[in-house]
Amino acid sequence: MIYLTKKIEFEAAHRISNYPGTCSEIHGHTYYLEVTVSGKVDWNTDMVLDFKILKSIIQTGVIDHFDHALILKRNSENEKIFSSYPGKIAWMESEPTAEQMLLWIVSSISPLLPDEISLAKLKLHETSGSCASWKDNKR
Amino acid sequence: MIYLTKKIEFEAAHRISNYPGTCSEIHGHTYYLEVTVSGKVDWNTDMVLDFKILKSIIQTGVIDHFDHALILKRNSENEKIFSSYPGKIAWMESEPTAEQMLLWIVSSISPLLPDEISLAKLKLHETSGSCASWKDNKR
Amino acid sequence: MIYLTKKIEFEAAHRISNYPGTCSEIHGHTYYLEVTVSGKVDWNTDMVLDFKILKSIIQTGVIDHFDHALILKRNSENEKIFSSYPGKIAWMESEPTAEQMLLWIVSSISPLLPDEISLAKLKLHETSGSCASWKDNKR
């Protein structure tokens, strides 16, 4: 099986509102995302998928949504605090931990992939030393 | 199971002759290759395989062939264009996409490994943001 | 399945006493260790495990033991050579190859993890180009 990985960065702010420590403060990360898909080599193009198509899927499914956004759990506390904030907010149903952002990205990217291409793995680095990853359990 | 990975770079030029875009121009990459093998720890040496042996296998099986070469599909168009080119050409039966180069490298490295060592994974980076990988389906 | 990876460095010296080459000399590495655990997302914290807890487990299970130590196989040759050495020595039952250090780290970290968290993968880089890794065979 052949896998293709596209790596891309985005900058965002977040706060973990229920965290008993400084992560409840607004802070940010240069998120570094690795998206891995799998599929068969197309013998017409000698490619599994054009890297440019994969990049544009990540742009639509992830970057347009999260880049330079403030990522927040939609709860009454956050809705009150940021009620006058005019900037871009990416609301989530959960706290914006790397784990939950990964699961969000799985749901967002999967339907954008061509039929013959599967999402195999995602890796989301919050810092150079900390990352969360997701793997398709079926393989 | 223990895995050993050796990472190595080589510089090469290629063109994807059937690509509808700039990748049909001659261009090049600093290819960054990760070769992962698996095996049992030898209790005499406390190693699976000496990293130096793995490096020399990659040198013979990959670097000697591709480094500072122009990698091309052997088709009539390329044979005509480069008929007067005196430099090193690595001809392939397919377009020299990362996907097909990976499959070529699998065939080239596998027979060079010692009996008790298996090729487990290959990762070939064309750029810092784009890589193709291959995994042994049997594990 | 969600995986969390924490990456951490430590500096140590070692010698491979039975190696027929310069690795039998005392030398050192900036070891770069990646520890990957897996588990389910806790819907109270929206995390699998706080990265800070994982970091502190690695500190206790690996860094406190190996950092700025001289790592040696406990054999009569080494015991004689270093009998007057007053510094920190991390003795091992095997030669301190990356392979055997990995297996040592598996045994050291596993019992420190919370019940619902499993050790999934370890990657130990001796240099930027050479690393050994271990994967849980059960998954």
From TrEMBL, chains A, B, C:
Q: What is its EC number?
A: 4.-.-.-
Q: Which domain of life is it from?
A: Bacteria
- Offer an example of a GO molecular function term for this protein: metal ion binding
Q: Where does Zn(2+) bind?
A: H14, H27, H29
Catalytic EC class:
lyase
Q: In the UniProt record, does the keyword Cytoplasm occur?
A: no
The cofactor(s) it depends on are: Zn(2+)
Q: Which residues form the active site?
A: C23, H68, E126
Give the reaction(s) catalysed: 7,8-dihydroneopterin 3'-triphosphate + H2O = 6-carboxy-5,6,7,8-tetrahydropterin + triphosphate + acetaldehyde + 2 H(+)
Against InterPro entries, the record matches this protein to:
6-PTP_synth/QueD (IPR007115), 6-PTP_synth/QueD_sf (IPR038418)
Pathway(s) it belongs to: Purine metabolism; 7-cyano-7-deazaguanine biosynthesis
**Cofactor: how and how many bound:** Binds 1 zinc ion per subunit.
Which Pfam families does the record cross-reference, listed alphabetically?
A: PTPS
Q: Name one GO biological process term.
A: tRNA queuosine(34) biosynthetic process
UniProtKB keywords: Lyase, Metal-binding, Queuosine biosynthesis, Zinc
Q: Which family does it belong to?
A: Belongs to the PTPS family. QueD subfamily.
Name this polypeptide is given:
6-carboxy-5,6,7,8-tetrahydropterin synthase
Organism for this UniProt entry? Algoriphagus alkaliphilus
Traced from the root, the source organism's taxonomic lineage reads: Bacteria, Pseudomonadati, Bacteroidota, Cytophagia, Cytophagales
